[in-house]
Amino acid sequence: MDNLSYLSNADSSYIDSLYQLYQQDPEAVDFGWQKFFEGFDFGRGSGGDTAGSQTPEHFLKEMKVMGMIYGYRQRGHLFTKTNPVRERRKYYPGKELETFGLSESDLDTVFNAGAEVGLGPAKLRDIRQLLEQTYCQSIGAEYVYIRNPDKLKWFRERMERERNTPNLSLDTKKRILKKLNEAVVFENFLGTKFLGQKRFSLEGAESLIPALDFVINRGADLGIEEFVIGMAHRGRLNVLANIMNKTYKDIFAEFEGKAFDESKPYGGDVKYHLGFSTDVETDSGKKVHLSLCPNPSHLEAVDPVVEGISRSKIDFKYQGDHSRLAPILIHGDASVAAQGIVYEVLQMAKLDGYKTGGTIHLVINNQVGFTTNFKDARSSTYCTDIAKVTLSPVFHVNGDDVEALVYAINMAIEYRQKYHNDVFIDILCYRRYGHNESDEPKFTQPVLYKAIEQHPNPREIYNKKLLEQGSVDANLAKEMEKDFRALLQERLNESKESNTYEPNPMFSGAWNGLRMATPEDFEEKSQTAVQEDVLVGIADKITSLPSDKKFFKKIEKLFEDRKNMVKNRTFDWAMGELLAYGTLLNEGFRVRISGQDVERGTFSHRHAVVKVEDSEEEFVPLTLIKKDGENSNNKFDIYNSHLSEYGVLGFEYGYALANPQSLTIWEAQFGDFVNGAQTILDQFLVSAETKWQRSNGIVVLLPHGYEGQGPEHSSARIERFLEQCAEFNIQVANCTNPANYFHLLRRQLKRDFRKPLVVFTPKSLLRHPLCVSKLEEFSDGHFREVIDDSYVKPEKVKRVLFCTGKVYYDLLEKQQADKRSDVAIVRVEQVYPIPYTQLKEVKEKYNKAGEFIWVQEEPENMGAWPFICRKFRNSSFNLDVISRKESSSTATGYSKQHISQQLYIVGKAFEDTAGNEVKKAVVKTTKKVVNVD
């Protein structure tokens, strides 16, 4: 017969198709199936001994054995011995022989299916033993959902050949014991010497330390020169001490409170949030740089930052070679399952703009989150099930079996280096104490913690195992503990006697040559002007389309219009922005922009990337800008991001953190959506300098302005940024002309310090006929924090209107239409740091004015007014405000109401003492007067 159609089980059609494929080309099926079908064909032939007696019934059982093999590969992880402190949940069907249609009577029968696991024809007993040892012991492997046959084969052959069983040298075993000893004794020492202090100990998960030690050593042997590590607070001190080699003396000094320095303007952070970087030497003599990123208590917030730092270093330091740097993310079981940022970051893993060559994910699975049991913490089977989204393999490992963990970690780093994909290690362990050392866990987990109380630590378990093997002397562990404890005591004594404490220097490595900003720096004008001939040359390049390619007619018209701007020496917003990027590239800097739709721009203004018609081919004009002369690192990168704010802003913050010589920009699709990234803003962007002494020059572009588009497309929440402004931590700007925006962007890289810059960018102004700048404003000028009114004479002015952003043009239109020479309009382009000097000059200039009014489009409880009101409450300005009335929503969704509100604001700004102007303005638009006062 030509097929296997006599089989009556559900797999027959699949087996049929495989067999037919084998008949056409034996190499077209896996090796195991080749051997199986060879036996089947031989059994069907005339000759033969054992195989020749093969019957359809036996062949059916062969299929069942194959089903058992695939069953173990697919579901064996559900039946492992991976939980150190309690019974695993039960899953049905199980792995009994009957599950696969086999029985005990088949155990000594020889099956050709043994070839599938590398045994050749073998007894069922031996096949099952191999599968049990490989898939159901201390390592549970999830990998069969991977859709790449080469990766599947790599895992299958590696694990089944070695049966997922470590075979370690005596020296390796002693090193594992040494690292376990350090982990256990360090926690015990802190617990006895600093009673009552929070440390979020690693106790119960000490196997993490040898695991990290081996991933670094094995990674170095495979070509990795640097690891960037992110983790939350649990176990951080142990990692800092025993992996990062932060001195015990410095750690103890932090417990003693000596990290606080009244002479420095830092608020600092708790010791279990701090970062560190260092160089270590591996066993094989290779140098590896390690960076542990600081992280707040917002679990997983550091994940995108780590990826951004990693990508930045890969781009700059390693010339795009992913194999020389690897990120490591250490998660908690509750957070990796529940925090949405994990998903956002995983979706970056294979995107061109964000990939880092694969991340090693280590999950410290305490089986409890704060006080929440795992059954209440997720709906998924495993906390790591999110890994399947990106087809990342997962290994669930018993945290008490440190050799199995080392084995899995080595396999993970080999896979990462070979395939440049993410891989997860789920370390099943426990938390010795409550959420912190003073917490009582029996309040919420009495049964679990009764078991934990009686459970030996991983060092005791491993030492006992080595003693039983005869691998080590009975006194080795005791001597290790004694020596290490003595060392810790010595370092503690030194920390008490010394008054010095030296954290990682703030301005080293890529930041060498930069410094902290001072208040005086914000009074100085940066040299951001560019010579006219250089500007024109760059403008010509970026407004020219290749003549040999055909583009969409609207694109051709757009570039023709831009070319005319060059001829007319007048530029709109988009050209001002592109010229800022082009001139920085021309000076050897790198420019990176990402966000949703940034290539074209949400409002179709940028068109930094254009498509060739009827093609996916792209043309990026700014890539034509090359720095002449010496080798330069200039490069223009722009990426449309996936639909993420939290993840992408965190990534770009990390990118800017690793290299201050890049203009790194994140743009929100609408500024309103930045609230999705509020954690990054709060925990990193506005506070990292004072908490962790780390500067950053990221630029955040937030389209903002009231144009009748409703509550979700009007406000980027200026008030939220300003309420966090203090100690010159960030810069907040809302520019009104292209040249000022040009100088603002260039200023980011033209000073010897870095500060985050938040810019509230326009929408309608992108095409406003008055929102243009002359060439000379780019070539002869600088960023102007305040722009005065050039239309009025100071001695005639009775009222001064201060404003920021787009509302200026509404006020200007009214001023010019009514020829109001008695009202001056002053633009505050930089809202923070507040340009007090320039504002005082304005006050002195208009000394005849009786009124100084802040005008804004936002409701009174939003926008810049709450901040301005507070900052000027005791000043001679005696400011009043004109705005929408206070509101719980940012803007109305009704067009007529929006128009009437906007006209009210403008009319109110110019009304006479009788209030006639505002009434007339509102009635002109709608019969219904809306009370916005």
Automatic annotation (TrEMBL):
Q: Which GO terms describe its biological process?
A: tricarboxylic acid cycle
Q: Which cofactor does it need?
A: thiamine diphosphate
Question: Would the keyword Oxidoreductase turn up in this protein's UniProt record?
Answer: yes
Which domain of life does the protein's organism represent? Answer: Bacteria
Question: A GO molecular-function term, please?
Answer: thiamine pyrophosphate binding
EC number(s) recorded for this UniProt protein: 1.2.4.2
Residues forming the Transketolase-like pyrimidine-binding domain are 571-768
Top class in the EC scheme: oxidoreductase
Kindly list the GO CC terms recorded for this protein: cytosol; oxoglutarate dehydrogenase complex
Keywords from the named record: Oxidoreductase, Thiamine pyrophosphate
Query: Known Pfam families for this protein?
Result: 2-oxogl_dehyd_N, E1_dh, OxoGdeHyase_C, Transket_pyr
Q: Does the keyword Oxidoreductase apply?
A: yes
The record's section on InterPro entries has: 2-oxogl_dehyd_N (IPR032106), 2oxoglutarate_DH_E1 (IPR011603), DH_E1 (IPR001017), KGD_C_sf (IPR042179), ODO-1/KGD_C (IPR031717), THDP-binding (IPR029061), Transketolase-like_Pyr-bd (IPR005475)
Q: What does this protein do?
A: E1 component of the 2-oxoglutarate dehydrogenase (OGDH) complex which catalyzes the decarboxylation of 2-oxoglutarate, the first step in the conversion of 2-oxoglutarate to succinyl-CoA and CO(2).
Protein family according to the UniProt entry:
Belongs to the alpha-ketoglutarate dehydrogenase family.
Q: What is this protein called?
A: oxoglutarate dehydrogenase (succinyl-transferring)
Q: Which organism is it from?
A: Pararcticibacter amylolyticus
